Amino acid sequence: MKVAKPILLAEDNPRDVELALAAMEAHHMADKVVVCCDGAEVLDYLYCRGPFAFRQKGNPLVVLLDLKMPKVDGLEVLRVMKADATLRSIPVVMLTSSREERDLRESYALGANAYVVKPVEFTQFVSAVKELGSLWGLINEPPPDPS
């Protein structure tokens, strides 16, 4: 089954990007993943500006959002998304190495749909990303794009 909308992966660690893409490839979803390396790039993608000015319109299926990113951190990206009527319905999964209770609380307070701590062990990481991809890419019914 193919995913109609892309998954937006916001991750600044090249190794984690590589692992996430490998895991999603197992579910034939890697061709539908857009990778952004910092929070400013995520916002450019979502608002179709800068290098993404000419991308196909529409929201991603889900945003897998790292918490600690350069330029604009994940919490600020989440804050902007949930304050915007055209973006707030996009499911956001915080995919982070932070186990700090403060980050967990603030993520949910800002409207995150899930908070997943990245396992440091390779097979656990691949398994976690496969499960996230299956849920958000194949099983979950996404909200329609706002008109």
**What is the typical, i.e. mean, pLDDT?**
82
Specify the CATH homologous superfamily: Response regulator
Biggest beta sheet attributes = 5 strands, parallel
CATH class: Alpha Beta
From the N-terminal CA to the C-terminal CA, the straight-line distance is 26 Å
- Main sheet: strand order: 2-1-3-4-5
Roughly what percent helix?
Answer: 25-40%
How many β-strand runs? 5
Coarse structural class: alpha/beta
Structure, described:
A 5-stranded parallel sheet has the order 2-1-3-4-5, with helices on both faces. The longest helix is centred in the C-terminal third of the chain and has 18 residues, at 122-139. It starts with 6 loop residues before the first strand and ends in an 8-residue tail after the last helix. It has helices at residues 14-25, 39-46, 74-83, 101-110, 122-139; strands spanning 7-10, 33-36, 62-65, 92-96, 114-117. It is built from 5 helices and 5 strands, in the order βαβαβαβαβα. It is of the alpha/beta class and 147 residues long. It is globular, with a radius of gyration of 14 Å. The mean pLDDT is 82. 39% of the residues lie in helices and 14% in strands. The protein has one domain: Response regulator (Rossmann fold).
What's this entry about, in short?
The protein contains 5 helices and 5 strands; from the N terminus they run E-H-E-H-E-H-E-H-E-H. With 147 residues, the protein is an alpha/beta fold. It is globular and about 35 Å long.
